[in-house]
Specification:
The protein has helices at 41-52, 77-89, 92-107, 123-134, 175-185, 213-231; strands at residues 2-9, 14-21, 27-33, 56-60, 112-121, 140-143, 162-167, 191-196. By secondary structure, it is α/β, with parallel strands linked by helices. Helix 3 crosses helix 4.
Length: 232
């Protein structure tokens, strides 16, 4: 397994991404969609882990239009303040153009065999949902995506498999929003929702304040099984 920084050509310019390749050199592709902290160690570690599972994983820098190369952590208040500032400045529609550019780029990478999916966390969880409605991704997984309820009218456009992990006590997604998601998605044949009782936002972020090992492992095992069945 190896990882390297690469350049992706988008509709409005080029931007960077972190690419992790399996030891065997080939596999299906997964675009990893960042949290509000940029393409930091947490995201790179996720790519490396996916590569260890046999996938070619690419995490694009979706904040490049604001400031290229953001790599901050969740460990200081100053970094949290900057992360929320970036979140407020982020243009979701332009970001989705970049997600499609990353998917297209990954399909053309040597060693990518077959299908390409997406997986996202926090902000990236919403983008993973939108990748199921606005891109040609073959499958998508979102972890505790924020503001998904605001775009539920797009769910009818979903024709490929989507899995969403929902934190029951998510400080950024209230129970009303979660109820709306279930109302719209529970009967959709392409969508699977998993609720994690008692869990707060980012329960799967290693080193985070709300990290829960058991629930993180459960969610990650579901994601692994999902991608094994939909991409390979």
């Amino acid at each position: 397994m190896s990882g390297t920084d690469i350049t992706i050509n988008g509709t409005d310019g080029s931007f960077s991404g972190y690419l992790a390749t399996p030891a065997g050199g080939s596999g299906p592709g997964i675009v990893v969609l960042q949290e509000i902290f940029g393409v930091n160690k947490v995201m790179r570690d996720i790519c490396d882990d996916l590569a260890a599972q046999g996938f070619v994983a690419l995490c694009p820098d979706l904040f490049w239009r604001i400031e290229p190369g953001i790599q901050i952590t969740d460990q200081t208040q100053a970094e949290w303040d900057r992360a929320f500032e970036l979140f407020g400045l982020f243009d979701v529609d332009k970001g989705m153009e970049d997600v499609q550019a990353a998917i297209t780029h990954l399909r053309g990478v040597d060693g990518v065999t077959g299908k390409v999916g997406t997986v996202g966390y926090c902000l990236g969880g919403k983008l993973a949902y939108l990748s199921a409605t606005r891109t040609d991704a073959d499958a998508a997984v979102g972890y505790y995506g924020v503001n998904i309820a605001a775009d539920l009218e797009e769910a009818d456009a979903i024709t490929k498999p989507l899995m969403l992990h929902i934190a029951e006590k998510d400080e950024f997604v209230d129970h009303a929003a979660q109820a709306e998601m279930h109302k719209v998605m529970d009967d959709h044949r392409q969508i699977t929702l998993h609720d994690y009782v008692g869990m707060d936002h980012a329960f799967a972020r290693v080193g985070g304040a709300h990290f829960d090992k058991a629930n993180a492992e459960l969610a990650n095992s579901r994601t692994a099984d999902f991608f094994q069945s939909t991409l390979k």
